[in-house]
């Protein structure tokens, strides 16, 4: 089932998410729904706060980045990079910082250059609640860092400089009011209820 994606401005996107255990209700269905929602919105990652749940869970599928774009810049190592990360903890971020044009399903039609470290070491539980620890680099690391920010109550626009933030303010306000067209279901925090 496709879930509505929470839009910029909703307080849940600013809340630090809580850990869950194996008894979390309907977890298997939630994970399936999150993948379905992410694919329908043409995303490569989706965190639980983006579907209105303040829990430490996100799903990623970086396979779209495995295919060459017009610059021939695809990364074949991402072909099968599909993961469920539960209760993740970033242990280390290392390497040279680099810029990449990021976007977010909760902030549609806004893409900006964000600088992040090249490598990340992350510990998490997979969908079977088996502990995993992986070192990621490049786009895989970036996607994980972006989604991890969501469960920490941070957004990619927080990493922009003051001038860029000021330039985006009216667009972000419009998104929070539902004044944006998207090809997927969204939940807007500041829509006035009709009586």
From TrEMBL:
Active site, renumbered: 147
Entry EC no(s): 3.5.1.88
Lineage, highest ranks first: Bacteria, Pseudomonadati, Bacteroidota, Sphingobacteriia, Sphingobacteriales
Keyword Acetylation set for record: no
Function: Removes the formyl group from the N-terminal Met of newly synthesized proteins. Requires at least a dipeptide for an efficient rate of reaction. N-terminal L-methionine is a prerequisite for activity but the enzyme has broad specificity at other positions.
Organism encoding this protein: Sphingobacterium suaedae
Entry keyword set: Hydrolase, Iron, Metal-binding, Protein biosynthesis
N-terminal signal peptide: none
Protein name: Peptide deformylase
Family assignment from sequence similarity: Belongs to the polypeptide deformylase family.
Chemical reaction(s) catalysed: N-terminal N-formyl-L-methionyl-[peptide] + H2O = N-terminal L-methionyl-[peptide] + formate
């Amino acid at each position: 089932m496709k879930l509505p994606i929470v839009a910029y401005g909703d307080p849940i996107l600013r809340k630090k998410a809580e850990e869950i255990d194996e008894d979390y209700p309907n977890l298997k269905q939630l994970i399936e729904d999150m993948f379905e929602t992410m694919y329908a919105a043409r995303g490569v990652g989706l965190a639980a706060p983006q579907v209105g749940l303040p829990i430490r869970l996100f799903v990623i599928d970086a396979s779209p980045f495995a295919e060459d774009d017009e610059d021939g810049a695809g990364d074949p190592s991402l072909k099968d990079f599909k993961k469920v990360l539960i209760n993740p903890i970033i242990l280390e971020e290392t390497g040279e910082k680099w810029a990449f044009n990021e976007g977010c399903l909760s902030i549609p039609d806004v893409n900006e250059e964000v600088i992040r470290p090249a490598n990340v070491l992350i510990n998490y539980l997979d969908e079977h609640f088996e502990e995993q620890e992986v070192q990621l680099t490049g786009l895989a690391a970036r996607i994980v860092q972006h989604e991890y920010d969501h469960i920490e109550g941070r957004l990619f626009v927080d990493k922009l400089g003051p001038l860029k933030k000021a330039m985006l303010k009216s667009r972000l306000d419009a998104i929070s009011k539902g004044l944006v067209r998207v090809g997927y279901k969204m939940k807007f925090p500041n829509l006035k209820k009709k009586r």
